[in-house]
Amino acid sequence: MNETDYKIVQTENDIHLIIKDGVTEISYMDAMSDSLRESITKVTIPQSVQTIGFCAFKGFDSLKEIYIPSSVKKIDILAFSGCFSLEKADLSNTYLINIPRGIFSNCYNLQTVMLPKEVIRISDRAFSRCLNLRHIDFPKTLTEIGQEAFKECINLTEVNFPDSIESIETAAFQECAGIRKISLPPKLKNLSDKIFSECERLEDITLNENLEQISDGCFYATRLKEISIPANCNCICQFAFTRCTKLNSIVLHSAKASENVKRAFFNDFIVEYDRIVHFKASACPSFLLETSLFDFREDETLIKPRFFNSTDCEVACNFLLDPNIENFDKIKTVEVKINLAIAYNEYDRAFTEYVKTHLDRVFEIIKRENNFDVLDFMYDRNLISKQAINKWIKAIDSQEQPEIYLSLLNYKNSIKGYDRVASRFDL
């Protein structure tokens, strides 16, 4: 913009920038001195303006409010970025459908934003680091919120999503420390990486029934107390709920999702707290074979949780390894009290004892389900006798289950090799 396109009016309280009528585009004002740019407190934009260009008002450190007239059809990226004193931005009379990238980023004092009534997308980092933004009303037309759109809006306390929302992208609300409660919109199918990560006061989340995926670090280091994962959610990615130190109840309704529980919830290196995890019987994950104490509910009968011993482990293995056990249909819920500090060693001892005393039963499970995990467990701990392995090799159809057959042959050969070495060196 040229100096002829605007004028400066100075009053007792304001330094007022007035864009002249007839100007159609506001671009970065090269001719304006930095000291004047930093001191302007008020801007008037006429109805003739149709475009506000790249970084047009960047560096207007004292600007307190901005009103965008209905004539504006396009605002370029970073148009008001770094307007540190800006308190109010009114775009409500425009017909913009996209809030551009970084438009109000680093406007630390921004408190009030009025969005266009027909906006469809809020682009990446549009309001990132608006440290004093407390509330924003989303129009019913909004479908997309971009990456880091509200990242580090540390005083944002209330977020009400319209039902129209279909996509919330990576880290959109990361480090929004003031948010306490979230209810997700019904059309949202994927929670992208780190959406609510490090929202340190977030303690209540309602997930929508159509949700299919919770991505990496989504609720990392929040204060969630309980979480119910809907049946359609088949994927919970790593670190999704890690460092949620207040989380004491996890309800899963999907068998696929439950397989990811370990890396999603328990990736902390040091875990010093217990949690109660609730699973529908059909969604009980194999991960529980590693770290679990069991509490079965059959109708109104409650079996209290105990530390593992051989008997408890047999109950656990019956349930987890053989889903066709008697009365399976009566089991409504499995509650698991998890304490990682003790569970690994306790499980390993108990499961080893169980396998040693139920070899034939375990083999039937391996054969039926091609369960290489259990076979490897037995191999690593040298739990199979020579008599048992010969018996199993004869029982396996090498054509139908070649992998199991070859694994057993390799196991047998390794035992023979050890025997030869042992006899030679008197081991």
* CATH class call of the largest domain: Alpha Beta
Contiguous helical run count: 9
Strand order of the largest sheet: 18-20-21-24-22-23
Given helix and strand content, the structural type is alpha/beta
> What percentage of residues falls in helices of 4 or more residues?
10-25%
Radius of gyration, whole Å: 31 Å
Q: What is the CATH superfamily of the largest domain?
A: Ribonuclease Inhibitor
Strand residue content: 15-25%
Number of individual domains? 2
What summary fits the major beta sheet? 6 strands, mixed
Would you mind describing this structure in some detail?
This protein has 427 residues and is α/β, with parallel strands linked by helices. It has two domains: 259 residues, Leucine-rich repeat, LRR (right-handed beta-alpha superhelix), CATH 3.80.10.10; 68 residues, no CATH class. 23% of the residues lie in helices and 18% in strands. The chain contains nine helices and 24 strands. The strands form seven sheets. A six-stranded mixed beta sheet has the order 18-20-21-24-22-23. A four-stranded parallel beta sheet has the order 9-11-12-13, with no helix packed on it. Strand 22 and strand 23 form a beta hairpin.
